[in-house]
Amino acid sequence: MTYSYYPGCTLKNKARELDDYARRAAAKLGVTMEELPEWQCCGGVYPIAKDEIATKLSSVRALMAARDAGQDLLTLCSACHHVLKRVNHDLQTDEAVQTKVNNYLAPEQPYTGETKVIHYLEMLRDVVGFENLKKQVVNPLKGMKIAPYYGCLLLRPSAVLAMDDPENPAIMEDFIKAIGATPVAYPYRNECCGGYVAMEAPEYACKRCNAINASAASFGAEAIITACPLCMYNLRQNAADPLPVYYFTQLLARALGVEEDEA
Amino acid sequence: MSDTKRLKEQILAISGVNPRKCMKCGKCSGACPAYDEMEYHPHQFVAMVEDGRIDQLLASDSLWMCLSCFACVERCPRQVEPAHLIEGVRLALIRQQNQNHLHAEDIPPKLNDALPQQAIVSAYRKYSK
């Protein structure tokens, strides 16, 4: 299986390991990630206002490049996934956005949201399959109790994101089981870490992250996994007595025996 | 058309929200992780925009407290989408001259080695135009 891949700005810098472990694991699983030859930052947050056009164009360019390559668009960062998926939905459903975007970009073939945007976790579940993944695990993380942390961006609004049940998701739990570890059930898994207030009001992010971290710890978690660089930052920097926080791709690479390989 | 009425029309148009769909159940504010930080809560944004009490919202720090986590959007039984309305009010302010909440020159002292690029672009997109 070959995908067009959109890494996003943070994965080329502070969250390099999220990207790096994902590539190693994909190679092991027989999945080819072809990074788009050119891409721009998605902006980090979905432009909600109906009249925002310019702030959606970088996403449209990436979506269109994947369409032209005849491939689905694979994402990894929760924020990029959220933005690309929602902008794509706008192009599918909002005629005003469709018209303005196509008038501005004037592509040879107008873009109307044809590309399928798929998150790496969805690829593991729906294409590789968790049962199949389990069979390829050489280093099961037996006995490790892991709290799945979804945050906001992967799940909501579920009418558009459509990854899983927004209130009772299972995809990360099933992933944790597939790599041989034990998922921890706790009530804060889809609560917000504070997100972009990290820079402006760190004490506010602290309150959020203390609640999440303490809840996970009180239910016996030894570690937390996330797909989001900003959740990772907030949980590590802004929680008291933080549990170790890993990108899910690092534990995937560990279970597949490729964590220490040369990249 | 009065200024308030024009402002209300503008906010409703850019947010795509119809506050009249609200049945005042309060679930949005019950779900909101920013509740304790806010002077006006999500259900109040909906009611106050509808009532034309927009100046109070524009002057409140509540505008900067919404985390855009979409819990209110997900859980609203009437699909009112309060977070979209809050964004509309925030934009009604920062699209005006000299009303940015975050200035580029204020960013460097707030940086640290671990802070991801995502935090900077997201905050800048939310707080400035």
Task: Tell me what you see in this structure.
The complex is a heterodimer of chains A (about 260) and B (about 130). Chain A is α/β, with parallel strands linked by helices. Chain A folds into two domains: about 1-120, Glutathione S-transferase Yfyf (Class Pi), Chain A, domain 2 (Up-down Bundle); about 130-255, Rossmann fold. Chain A has helices at about 15-30, 55-70, 80-95, 95-105, 120-130, 130-135, 160, 170-180, 195-200, 200-220, 230-235, 250-255, and strands at about 1-5, 30-35, 75, 115-120, 145-150, 180-185, 225, 245. In chain A, the strands form two sheets. In chain A, strands 2-1-3-4 form a four-stranded parallel sheet, with helices on both faces. A four-stranded parallel sheet of chain A has the order 6-5-7-8, with helices on both faces. In chain A, helix 3 (about 80-95) crosses helix 4 (about 95-105) and helix 6 (about 130-135) runs parallel beside helix 8. Chain B is mainly α and about 130 residues long. Chain B has two domains: about 5-95, Alpha-helical ferredoxin (Fumarate Reductase Iron-sulfur Protein, Chain B, domain 2), CATH 1.10.1060.10; about 100-130, no CATH class. Chain B is about 50% helix and about 0% strand. Chain B has seven helices and no strands. Chain B has helices spanning about 5-15, 25-30, 40-50, 55-60, 70-75, 80-95, 115-125. The radius of gyration of chain B is 15 Å and the shape is globular. The interface of A and B includes residues 48, 51, 196 and 197 of A.
Task: Please describe the topology of this protein.
The complex is a heterodimer of chains A (about 260) and B (about 130).
Chain A: E1 2-6, H1 16-29, E2 32-35, H2 57-69, E3 73-75, H3 78-93, H4 95-105, E4 117-119, H5 120-128, H6 130-136, E5 145-148, H7 158-161, H8 171-178, E6 182-183, H9 197-200, H10 202-218, E7 223-226, H11 229-237, E8 245-247, H12 248-255
Parallel strand pairs in A: 1-2, 1-3, 3-4, 5-6, 5-7, 7-8
Chain B: H1 3-15, H2 27-31, H3 42-51, H4 54-58, H5 71-75, H6 82-94, H7 117-127
Helix pairs in contact in B: 1-6, 3-6
